[in-house]
Design brief:
- By secondary structure, this protein is mainly alpha-helical.
- It has a domain of about 90 residues: Serine Threonine Protein Phosphatase 5, Tetratricopeptide repeat (Alpha Horseshoe), CATH 1.25.40.10.
- It is about 80% helix and about 0% strand.
- Helix 7 runs antiparallel to helix 8 and helix 14 packs antiparallel against helix 15.
- The mean pLDDT is about 90.
Length: about 290
């Protein structure tokens, strides 16, 4: 049995959305990797991202750290840089930005690869946006798009459009956000990335709500929710349900809003999505600080 055949099979299954079978092939490749540090780091990192998508963050973090350590010991700088991004992504999901930033900033010292450095900048942009630093966020996103385009990385371009649009949305620029996020939807379709397409769709829904298009926003949010529920992505499902509750509140249906928020809060507490817990408790009037 050839471990590289297992890797190739896993990648195909992952792209098709068959996560369980993809993981099985990745694990087989891992068991057959032997002294091949590149292969071992690669399959560990890819497993980390799949478990991350399921909000299995402790397992994801362990796999990503093992991928980084394996690459570092073998002096595989590009592989180490990619694994550090996977480590940081777990911290981002938990809202632990202070732990994520040093991992991302280290990437530039390890590689000049446009795709990899673009990913690090992309994530730094997302963190800056969450922290309210619009100018720094915009600078990171614009530079990441340039690097992704130079690398011919369509999925990265879609990610950058999505997060740049997300930043515009968070700053109340709904018209710009709709435009950028619709570009992200288009880019995600070109990249044939179902998760990213659902994420961009969810964000478009929130931007549309800001412009007052509530019916269209609700339809798009439910499309995204259906995907994330089917994929077992608890973190994104929480975001969708929070958004749907917000839409109900805008339509003055407070009881319906509470139902969405309570469902989202239960999941957020279960998976340890602390930032979402805070947002939802505030909406439900459960926070006293």
């Amino acid at each position: 049995m050839d471990p590289y055949d297992e890797l190739d099979a896993a990648v195909i299954l992952e792209r098709e959305g068959n996560v369980d079978d993809a993981l099985a092939h990745y694990r087989t490749a891992e068991s057959l990797a032997g002294a091949d540090a590149w292969l071992l780091s690669e399959v560990l990192r890819r497993q980390a991202y799949l478990h991350h998508a399921r909000s299995e963050w402790e397992l994801s973090l362990d796999l990503a750290r093992r991928a980084a350590s394996t690459a570092e010991n073998a002096q595989l700088s590009d592989q180490q840089a990619e694994a550090l991004i996977a480590v940081a992504w777990v911290h981002v999901a938990r809202g632990a930005y202070e732990d994520a930033v040093p991992q991302l900033e280290k990437v530039a010292s390890l590689t000049e690869d446009h795709r990899i450095t673009g990913l690090a900048l992309h994530n730094l942009g997302a963190i800056a946006a969450e922290r309210g630093n619009w100018e720094l966020s915009r600078a990171h996103f614009m530079e990441s798009v340039k690097r992704f385009q130079a690398a011919g990385y369509q999925r990265g371009v879609a990610f950058a459009h999505n997060n740049y649009g997300r930043a515009a949305l968070d700053h109340g620029n709904y018209v710009l956000a709709v435009d950028l996020l619709q570009q992200a939807v288009s880019s995600a379709k070109k990249a044939a990335d179902a998760d990213l397409l659902a994420l961009a769709t969810m964000n478009v829904a929130e931007a549309l709500a800001g412009t007052g298009e509530l019916t269209r926003a609700e339809t798009m949010a439910k499309v995204a929710l259906q995907h994330f529920t089917s994929a077992g992505n608890g973190w994104r499902r929480v975001e969708c349900e929070r958004l749907l509750g917000d839409l109900e509140l805008r339509s003055e249906r407070r009881n319906e809003a509470r139902v969405w928020w309570e469902s989202a809060l239960e999941t957020a507490r279960t998976i340890g999505a602390q930032l979402e817990v805070v947002k939802l408790e505030e909406r439900l009037g459960l926070r006293r600080d």
